[in-house]
Amino acid sequence: MAGNSICSASAFLGSWGASIAGEDHATLQSKAAAASARVATPPIRFRPMMRNVNEGKGVFAPIVVVARNIIGKKRFNQLRGKAIALHSQVITEFCKSIGADGKQRQGLIRVAKKNGESLGFLA
Question: What is the mean pLDDT of residues 28-53?
Answer without folding.
Answer: 64
